[in-house]
Design brief:
With 487 residues, the chain is of the alpha/beta class. The protein folds into 2 domains: 236 residues, P-loop containing nucleotide triphosphate hydrolases (Rossmann fold, 3-Layer(aba) Sandwich), CATH 3.40.50; 233 residues, Rossmann fold, CATH 3.40.50. Helix content is 34%, strand content 25%. The chain contains 17 helices and 20 strands. It has a 6-stranded mixed β-sheet with strand order 6-7-8-3-9-10, sandwiched between helices. Strands 16-17-18-13-19-20 form a 6-stranded mixed β-sheet, sandwiched between helices. Strand 9 and strand 10 form a beta hairpin. It starts with a strand and ends with a helix. The model has no long low-confidence stretch (mean pLDDT 85).
Length: 487
């Protein structure tokens, strides 16, 4: 099978999302697509899967022109997609989610529930998810397990071409390895694989070809052996990405202390943060890192332990207002569901923390803060009164940071701060983090990206099954040391 796109063009009010894009995908190949947020990847994906129609251009399969007027038409032509933002329904079972659109039926046209459950169990076995049951509800799963169910859903009808949209963004290293084995097997079965990812390491690990998009245009398609990391980044962003280095920490007195903190999912957690220090928190998905972060902030339950800020002890009051009032900010790993009001404006999202602290609603003050924040963090937006939903992932993440930085925040907890952002935005966020540390903020950086932790952190705390298994100095930390403590 060969899926070919010729001169695909798509415009929205004020922007040309795709400009005469030419690209083809062939059976038995893993074809990666990379580009910054806003480069046109999502628009391209929506056109291929029938969610959008191109303004110009032709789509053909094996040299025969096709028209994907709906996702159903794309599906009928053997196209499946594993979405970055999950399309699952929490209240339904795993089996019901996988076969929601095309359930197996008996000769009378009624649902064949036994076959549906049996086929689901076979899929789960294939994905090494035998610990899950076909009839359990999706709401009982963690983020990584939900992503693997999304993959099972895409593979359930034996597609000819599978699009993976940031498939490892919410899964563990173990699940990622399983996914790569599945992709390798699909390739042997002559399935065409399209792999969209910001993670350069993964692209070089599994791809045969890579196409770079920038500002809606193709910058070229290359054999993976003919390019390196630096060349891809330069094609994506149009500039070199400078590497930052850890600065020397001179502050000796702790700004923030966590003492024997215990709660659901973690126990006896102790560590310190100094002014100007970036401390990483590593661990496998489900290790308890987010639970610890939320407990410190006051967004979840603790059963024992104390916190100190500027040598003043206080107990978490199990409400975010206690964290905010004590100068603690928590930047959630899920900006779309928990961090931002997507239907509200950039300005309203930035100003919301002032309202929590009891400030009076003043539109002129709101605008002044928003304009200043957008300028200082280089937030690219058509205007401060535009909805946050209109922004790219990287700029949404900057808005999430901005809402905490104009109040008196001393301790910043960053939970997966570069999740789902492109390499250019990631570099900008790194610079912001380092600048905040230089300004004297104490930063706890939770990340599943070991390179990120090694790149930025003075020390790395490793969490396994809710417990601290070690703290490694940044100058001595390696991926091997971190993984050995985490596993």
């Amino acid at each position: 099978m060969e899926l070919e796109l010729q001169n695909i063009t798509k415009s929205f009010p004020g922007v040309k999302a795709l400009d005469a894009v030419n690209i083809s995908f062939k059976s038995g190949e893993v074809h990666a697509i990379c580009g910054e947020n806003g480069a046109g990847k999502s628009t391209l994906l929506n056109i291929i899967t029938g969610n959008l129609q191109p303004d110009e251009g032709v789509i053909s399969i094996d040299s025969k022109q096709v028209n994907f007027s709906s996702p159903q038409k794309a599906f009928e032509n053997g196209i499946a997609i594993v979405y970055q933002h999950l399309s699952l329904v929490d209240s339904l079972s795993i089996a019901e989610n996988i076969y929601a659109s095309f359930p197996p039926v008996n000769k009378y046209g009624f649902l064949n529930r036994n076959k549906m459950l049996r086929d689901t169990e076979n899929l789960l076995q294939r994905l090494n998810l035998s610990n899950l049951k076909a009839d359990q509800t999706v709401k009982s799963l963690n983020a990584g397990q939900k992503q693997m169910v999304e993959i099972a859903k895409a593979l359930s009808h034996h597609p000819k071409i599978v699009f993976f949209d940031e498939p490892t963004s919410s899964v563990s290293e173990k699940d990622s390895a399983i996914l790569f084995k599945i992709i390798s097997q699909l390739k042997k079965e002559n399935v065409a694989i399209v792999y969209i990812s910001h993670r350069m390491k993964e692209i070089f690990m599994i791809a045969d070809l890579v196409t770079v998009l920038k500002d809606g245009k193709t910058q070229g398609t290359y054999n993976i052996a003919d390019v390196n990391n630096e060349k891809l980044i330069k094609l994506m962003v149009g500039r070199e990405i400078n590497q930052l280095r850890i600065t020397t920490l001179s502050e000796k007195k702790p700004l923030f202390e966590v003492n024997n903190l215990t709660g659901p999912g973690f126990s006896d957690i102790s560590f310190t943060l100094h002014k100007g220090e970036i401390v990483g928190m590593a661990g496998l998905i489900g290790a308890g890192r987010t639970e610890i972060a939320k407990a410190i902030f006051g967004a979840s339950i603790t059963t024992s332990g104390t916190l100190k800020i500027n040598n003043k002890a206080f107990k978490p009051f199990q409400h975010p207002s206690s964290g905010i009032e004590n100068g603690i900010a928590y930047i959630t790993e899920d900006r779309r569901m928990q961090g931002l009001f997507l239907s509200k404006s950039v300005a309203e999202n930035i100003y919301v923390t002032d309202l929590v602290l009891g400030s009076t609603y003043k539109p002129s003050h709101l605008d002044a803060i928003a304009i200043s924040s957008c300028k200082s963090l280089d937030i690219k937006t058509p205007g401060i009164h535009n909805q946050v939903a209109e922004l790219s992932g990287g700029n949404q993440q900057k808005v999430l940071l901005a809402k905490w930085l104009h109040i008196n925040t001393q301790v910043l907890i960053l939970d997966e701060p570069t999740h789902g952002v492109d390499v250019g935005a990631k570099s900008e966020i790194y610079k912001i983090i380092q600048t905040l540390a230089e300004q004297g903020k104490a930063i706890l950086l939770i990340s599943s990206d070991l390179t990120e932790l090694l790149h930025l952190c003075h020390r790395v705390i490793v969490i396994k099954e809710g417990r601290n298994t070690g703290i490694i100095d940044g100058t001595e930390a390696t991926e091997e040391k971190i993984l050995s403590l985490a596993m």
